[in-house]
Structure prediction request, 487 residues.
Amino acid sequence: MADPKGFLNHGREVARTRPVAERVKDWNEVYVPGSLLPIVGKQASRCMDCGIPFCHNGCPLGNLIPEWNDYAYREDWAAAYERLHATNNFPEFTGRLCPAPCESACVLGINQQPVTIKNVEVSIIDKAWDSGHVTPRIPERLSGKTVAVIGSGPSGLAAAQQLTRAGHTVAVYERADRIGGLLRYGIPEFKMEKRHINRRIEQMRAEGTRFRTGVEIGRDLGARDLKKRYDAIVIAAGSTTARDLPVPGRELKGIYQAMEYLPLANKVQEGDYVVSPVSAEGKHVVVIGGGDTGADCVGTAHRQGAASVTQLEIMPRPNEERHPTGQPWPTFPILYKVTSAHEEGGERIYSASTTRFEGDEDGNVQWLHLAEVEFVDGKLTQKPGTERRIPAQLVTLAMGFTGTDRENGLVEQFGLELDERGNIARDADFQTNVPGVFVAGDAGRGQSLIVWAIAEGRSAARGVDRYLTGASDLPAPIRPTDRALAV
Prediction:
């Protein structure tokens, strides 16, 4: 272990963020560069040698957290990096974007603030990149087998890297113009600068993975042609069908799905636009949806110069602390969170339901009508007399996703069966009802976290490797039926 008295001698300390007035003027990551390394050793020392590390249960990747905490405390960065990469292909992504269910399961969290696992993780991988420890792992021999991966989000990239390192020839197909999926166009630059994706892609290219952008399977290339070209296929197309809001006035101009709004802001950072075609500048912005995607819309609107930003959530405001019986340790609790975007301003309204939109004579949205709601007999019910309207000249819908894309023909062309939730069904090896066709990530699991996506990609890769060669030494951290630890 690290320091036996570390958790007694040191309190929890996290990465410092840049001043709000400074960071809303740019799109760089919100954290003070270099602020973690001076404190990470003490934070790693708080890891308790707890006998049964429940952080392993919280993280579907099975990250060896106590081990790399110990190495980080001792400043053995090479060993810490080796332990970190043993279970996680992309810790620079999870260390920035994951909501850290491992910390919710930390034993220290029973009666203190948990170890800053996420901060230690990102410190180790950033140090590894800076020190040149992250190098291509080129396979010693090729199997002669070919694999197509559909989708370049975290699940697809993890599956592709694992299969390439196993010696298979892998091509990743991405319908967007750049690799990365939602990592590229769904995550704002201020949460993760895209240079982190770019250098990981270059590592994968050096290992032998091939990338095909601007190709949508089902439209640009049919399933039959793909099956002829490859010995196996991994569908990692995500859960990209957005939940809509069917209320009067939805057809007005100025109302967008979050994934119509956020990618345009990212394309500005890529140099594709000087100004986003959908900008919040000078507008009253309303974000419908209280999750992480909604917070991303809030932070983006701040940086575009919105006149005001209001975020609506239909559910009641969560507790600020874990409920001892409703959400007991070590489950992942739903708590009231103040993200970096919320620190930057705006109003958050809970228990609010949108009843209709109101526009001007030109068909542009101008007002959003809402009402308070409450639970009555287990159902959300509108409170009489609580109707009101708020200004809304730009509205983003961030209410989650309902399943993988069905409009492009991918599901039908492959002849895939769906489960009761509308996700692509698969067996214990992540194989669909079509031999040689596998599914990983949100397309099979439904909307989930980045750590689950990477774990799915790694596990599906084992299934593919076994299908192609008859056996596999690749790790499979989860089963398709595994779910997060919950009440």
